[in-house]
Amino acid sequence: MTINDQELAALYDRYAHIVYRRCLSILRNQEDAHDAVQETFARVIRHHDEFQGNASPLTWMYKISTNYCLNQLRNGNGRRNKLDVNKHEFEATAAANTGKLDEARVLVLLEQVDEETRSIIVHTFFDECTRQEVAELVGLSVPTVRKRIEDFLTLARSEMKVSDPEGGVS
């Protein structure tokens, strides 16, 4: 089943600005974010028949746009100069090494975790969502979201060979 022009226009009118904010938060460049929105909606057109309706269209488009933007960063096609990942937690992890987060290493770490955990990390650190908001977006409990974040931060500390902010060395 293909999407008709009226349905596409309704989706665009309702969600394009939200998808744009999402893309801008990841890519940190307005032009790249606009391109990402267009690519997101192009993929919505191409893959509309795959949308199962188990989640809202926005959740589906968030996933499409997030994957596209992360691929742009990873492939070097996007602007990599401002991967701004939640300053309080990740910068504390990297502070013992260089004082700032190594973008390429974070992207590699994101590739090492499953898609659900990756989504949790992106919602938490790129979108600055609360744990409750993340739990609702991914369909998990708040304690599970918290545990996934802790596990990812432990992995990040270990891979970056930095001290735990509470004093231990990972």
Structure, described:
The protein is mainly alpha-helical. The chain has two domains: 5-75, Rna Polymerase Sigma Factor, Chain: A (Orthogonal Bundle); 87-160, Winged helix-like DNA-binding domain superfamily/Winged helix DNA-binding domain (Arc Repressor Mutant, subunit A, Orthogonal Bundle). Helix content is 69%, strand content 0%. It has eight helices and no strands. The protein has helices spanning 5-27, 30-47, 57-75, 87-95, 103-112, 115-126, 131-138, 142-160. Helix 1 (5-27) packs antiparallel against helix 2 (30-47) and helix 2 packs across helix 3 (57-75). The longest helix is centred in the first third of the chain and has 23 residues, at 5-27. It is globular. 28% of the residues are buried. Residues 77-88 and 96-101 have low confidence and may be disordered.
Features of this protein?
single chain; 170 residues; mainly alpha; Rna Polymerase Sigma Factor, Chain: A; Arc Repressor Mutant, subunit A; 2 domains; 8 helices; 69% helix; globular
> What overall form do the CA principal axes indicate?
globular
Count of domains: 2
- In DSSP terms (H or I, runs of 4 or more residues), the helix count works out at 8
Low-confidence segments, ≥5 residues, pLDDT <50? 77-88, 96-101
Summarize the main sheet: none
CATH homologous superfamily (4th level) name of the largest domain: Winged helix-like DNA-binding domain superfamily/Winged helix DNA-binding domain
What is the CATH architecture annotation of the largest domain? Answer: Orthogonal Bundle
Report the end-to-end length measured between terminal Cα atoms: 51 Å
- Which CATH class of the largest domain applies here? Mainly Alpha
